[in-house]
């Protein structure tokens, strides 16, 4: 049975509100490294490769093992598949490091930092490349765990409907948006991230989507 990839109009305004909130809108500028955060979204590797070819970054780290949502698509691990994809797109293999053990965003940051230290690579600035709705959480996590790092966030620049079509599953995208919004609220209290301001209209949209049943990614 085909999965629906069309955003229902009844949810559009609320989904767009969350989508826009999670985009940090950071201008792209040269940095020491791009850190591609593993997920089900191969577009992370695609866009990281584009940044390399644009000369924005000289080195890439792909980080990620597997989650239940990625093990079928990336059986050898997210970072490994991302690296292979970037090489297919013309990035030299020796410009890519992989961190294949992280299973959450905090570990993505911590394990990447250790890898770079172990390799003797000094990094002062980084572009965190993630799926679009992970930007704000990635930023908050990095500022908590690696506060001295000059961080900007980026994602493959796709309109919402095009992104949903690429993923091929609208329910999955909405559930992930809702889940990441909850983590912006909850994770600072657990010490995982710095606090982020959440406008009232964002919280209201988040609550309405929970009431509509998009709860699969809540913690």
Automatic annotation (TrEMBL):
Pfam families: DUF218
InterPro entries: Cell_Envelope_Assoc, DUF218, Rossmann-like_a/b/a_fold
GO cellular component, one term: plasma membrane
Gene3D superfamilies in the record: HUPs
Domain DUF218 residues, every copy: 35-152
Protein name: Uncharacterized SAM-binding protein YcdF (DUF218 family)
Organism per entry: Thermomonospora cellulosilytica
